[in-house]
Amino acid sequence: PVHFVDATSPPALLVHGEDDGVVSVEQTRELSAALKRHQVPVETEILAGRGHAATVAGYSLVLRSAALIADTTRFIERVTSPATSSSPPASTATSQIGPSPSPAPM
């Protein structure tokens, strides 16, 4: 995906487990940097102590992470709000989210 980034790329929320043994976290950092170079709004969240499966499980109905879902919802609301949708500023946000202590209630 990094080779296809240009100024028309959509805003992106990149979420990656710090301990991912399937996909290198460096790929997410490279994609984030490419989006920023083209002034595309991007937020990057590196989840501390999480591997590939644990990161994906953060979005599952059974094991979802309340913090991850809240961050995702906030990002979607921000990039789709009428006040920012015409030309949102490129974000430089990067955060480290630790492992969720327990699944969020359904």
What does this 3D model show about the protein?
The protein is of the alpha/beta class. Helix content is 36%, strand content 15%. The protein has four helices and three strands. The protein has a three-stranded parallel sheet with strand order 1-2-3, sandwiched between helices.
The largest β sheet comes out as: 3 strands, parallel
> Which spans have pLDDT < 50 for at least 5 consecutive residues?
85-94, 96-106
What order do the strands of the largest sheet run in, or round the barrel if closed? 1-2-3
State Rg.
Answer: 14 Å
Number of helices: 4
State the end-to-end distance: 34 Å
Instruction: Report the average pLDDT across residues.
Output: 81
Find the count of extended strands (DSSP E, 2+ residues). Answer: 3
What is the share of helical residues? Answer: 25-40%
Task: Describe the oligomeric state of these chains in a short phrase.
Answer: single chain
Break the fold down into its secondary structure elements and pairings.
Layout: E1 12-17, H1 25-37, E2 42-47, H2 52-57, H3 66-80, H4 82-85, E3 94-97
Parallel strand pairs: 1-2, 2-3
Which key terms come to mind for this protein?
single chain; 106 residues; alpha/beta; 3-stranded parallel beta sheet
Task: Briefly say what this structure is.
This protein is α/β, with parallel strands linked by helices and 106 residues long.
